[in-house]
Amino acid sequence: MSKKLTISTIIKSKGVKPLVMITAYDALFARLLSDSADMILVGDSLNMSFAGKSDTISATLEQMIYHTNAVCSGAPNSFVVCDMPFGTYIDADKALQNSIKVFQETNADCVKIEGGADKAHIVKHLTSNAIAVCGHIGLLPQSVRSEGGYKVKGKTADEKTALIEDAKAVEAAGAFCMVVEGVKADVAKSIAESVDIPVIGIGAGVDVDGQVLVFSDMLGLFEEFTPKFVKKYMDGASLVRSAAQEYSQEVQEKIFPKEEHTY
Ligand code: KIV
User: Fold this and answer.
1) What is the whole-number distance in angstroms between the Cα of residue 262 and the centre of ligand 1?
2) How far is the CA of 67 from the centre of ligand 1 (A)?
3) What ligand 1 atom has the least distance to the C-alpha of 112?
4) What pLDDT band is residue 2 in, cutting at 50, 70 and 90?
5) Which residues in the chain belong to E strands, given as ranges?
6) Which residue has the CA at smallest separation from atom 1 of ligand 1?
7) Whose CA is nearest to atom 5 of ligand 1?
8) What is the model's pTM?
9) Cys-Cys crosslink for 250: which of 12, 27, 67, 255, Cβ 3.0 to 4.6 Å?
10) Quick one: how far is CA 110 from the chain centroid?
11) What are the pLDDT digits (tens) for 4-35?
12) Is 165 one of the catalytic residues?
């Protein structure tokens, strides 16, 4: 996408055009993906696919700022979302201090906060201090340890009611869009219908206002596990391995470098 979207064009896209969000963690991939994405998410999922950890919990604000800067450099015309990592928004003041740091030290266009009605006061504190917020409800990866795993949400009528209340609370607090993760598709549809801001789904079916995938999942680069909702658009891991093997063989057999690679 050549022109950076604005918050108001993102909100106006609801019901008009599905939004495309992809994660990126560095300038190289941000540049490659920017033409296909309305928004680039510097997700704390980088702690898993980039830093090799088993979950997102140990991602730090410094890490997020470093990677957000790289993404903003690689894709200066993209709308960039910086994920606030675990522990950086435990109260409204801490959230504001940390979000101000993100805004002052990067060109991120907004921050993303996990949580629903319980975090609405934090979203409100940020949005009323000129920090744009993308919400994130449903399955919350930062709660993986306290919940004992990644649990799909919206399986009961009570969960459905709570999720719709979460969405409404996050919207009322001033978020301009929200991610809905790991939610039964019919419930995600009801969530999208219950708010006027775009609902970006991941593992939430097709009846929402856009989709987000982690780039290393959709390119088939991340092999540790593949959630049901991931579609691999290429077999990146095999392509990388076979290119590396070919290079290794050519080095050992002195086939590379050839004349054209030599000064
Ligand atoms: O960290 C991340 O990449 C995310 C997506 C899964 C939405 O939050």
Assistant:
1) 43
2) 14
3) 8
4) low
5) 19-23, 39-42, 79-83, 110-114, 133-138, 177-181, 199-202, 210-213
6) 43
7) 43
8) 0.97
9) 255
10) 12
11) 999 999 999 999 999 999 999 999 999 999 99
12) no
Q: Which atom of ligand 1 is nearest to the CA of 21?
A: 7
Tell me the average pLDDT across 209-224.
Answer: 96
Q: Residue of the nearest CA to atom 8 in ligand 1?
A: 43
Looking at the predicted structure, is the pLDDT value of residue 249 above 90?
yes
Q: Which atom of ligand 1 is nearest to the CA of 23?
A: 3
Percentage of the chain with pLDDT > 90? 98
Of the candidates 62, 105, 181, 193, the residue annotated as catalytic is 181
Do the beta carbons of residue 83 and residue 64 sit within 8 Å?
yes
Average pLDDT over residues 156-179: 98
Q: Which residues, including other chains, have CB under 8 Å from residue 19's CB and lie 6 or more apart?
A: 10, 13, 38, 39, 177, 198, 200, 209, 210, 211
Pocket, ligand 1, Cβ cutoff 6 A: 23, 41, 43-45, 83, 179, 181, 202, 212, 214
19, 20, 23: residue to mutate for ligand 1 pocket, most atoms within 8 A of CB: 23
C-alpha span between 95 and 174 (Å, rounded): 15
Token duo for residue 21: 């969000």
Inter-residue contact 155 to 184 (CB < 8 Å): yes
What mean pLDDT comes out for the span 75-96?
Answer: 98
Measured from the Cα of 44, ligand 1's closest atom is 1
Q: 113-126, pLDDT tens digit by residue? A: 999 999 999 999 99
What are the tokens at 118? 């319980």
What does the pLDDT read at residue 1? 53
For residue 159, count other CB atoms closer than 10 A to its CB. 16
